[in-house]
From TrEMBL:
One of its GO terms (molecular function) is hydrolase activity. Its EC number is 3.6.-.-. This is Soj-like protein. InterPro entries: AAA_dom, DNA_Partitioning_ATPase, P-loop_NTPase. It comes from the Bacteria. The keyword Protein transport does not apply. SUPFAM superfamilies: P-loop containing nucleoside triphosphate hydrolases (SSF52540). Gene3D superfamilies: P-loop containing nucleotide triphosphate hydrolases (3.40.50.300). PANTHER family: P-LOOP CONTAINING NUCLEOSIDE TRIPHOSPHATE HYDROLASE, PARA FAMILY PROTEIN CT_582. Keywords: Hydrolase. The lineage of its organism: Bacteria, Pseudomonadati, Planctomycetota, Planctomycetia, Pirellulales. Residues 3-167 form the AAA domain. It is an enzyme of class 3 (hydrolase).
Length: 248
């Protein structure tokens, strides 16, 4: 069965989509059959791999999700594109329970040919994010090394625990990832220490540094591994990929 990893955080600008794209590419480059699912109406994961959003969201079509998959420029990596249609987003949010069932059914059956499925969620704790969590086997939470990091993380974990209690128990904590890590700032070390003391082993050893290459790569439709293979960001995402594989 595929590992279905929901990459979620209710806060924007924490490196969620960046992590979804770069981890997907790293897994594919490691030989893992990988699917990137774009559930964020901003469709940044779709454009981040150099493809165009769909006119209508695949979850709303009367067709198997596999019919909507797009091949990417990377071997072993396919994309289920997002849609920027406001009407589709509204329908997805209002019909979240039914769409959660549809998403889970397709990920369990239609996507059985994949080793990893990564879901990029909207920056919210809304119904669409909760639907994605219900369809996943684990959740990966990127958090920025800033003052309000723990506050947002606590809210996110409350929602995850609620879904765990209501579901069949297959959703687990996949890990917490510290992003935009600047070792020259005292605040960074304070957040790092506090998060690791509170959450222990579920925090990844790998941290994602502040690196302009990571920020620039999406504008070229590339991963940081392709855009700047010698950068600190590239090395960090390759190390994160190794940690994810080791936690299998």
């Amino acid at each position: 069965m595929a590992r279905i990893i929901c990459i979620a955080n209710q806060k924007g600008g924490v490196g969620k989509t960046t992590t979804a794209v770069n981890l997907s590419v790293a897994l594919a480059r490691a030989g893992e059959r990988t699917l990137l699912v774009d559930l964020d109406p901003q469709c940044n994961a779709t454009s981040g791999v150099g493809l165009q959003p769909a006119n209508n969201h695949p979850l709303l079509l009367n067709a198997p999700l596999r019919d909507s998959l797009l091949a990417t420029q990377w071997q072993n990596l396919d994309l289920l594109p997002g849609s920027r249609s406001f009407v589709d987003v509204d329908r997805l949010e209002r019909g979240s329970e039914s769409h959660a069932k549809v998403l889970r059914q397709h990920l369990d059956v239609s996507m059985a040919s994949f080793d990893y499925v990564l879901i990029d969620c909207p920056p919210s704790l809304g119904q669409l994010t909760q639907a994605a969590l219900s369809a996943s086997t684990e959740v990966l939470m990127p958090i920025q090394c800033e003052f309000y990091a723990m506050e947002g993380l606590t809210q996110m974990i409350h929602v995850i625990r609620t879904i765990m209690q209501q579901g069949d128990g297959r959703l687990t904590f996949g890990g917490i990832l510290l992003t935009m890590y600047d070792p020259t700032l005292e605040l960074t070390h304070e957040v790092d220490a506090e998060v690791r003391e509170f959450f222990g082993d579920i925090v990844f050893d790998t941290v994602i540094p502040r690196d302009v290459s990571v920020s620039e790569a999406p504008s070229h439709g590339l991963s940081v591994m392709d855009y700047a293979p010698r950068s600190r960001g590239c090395r960090a995402y390759l190390e994160l990929c190794m940690e994810v594989l080791e936690r299998d």
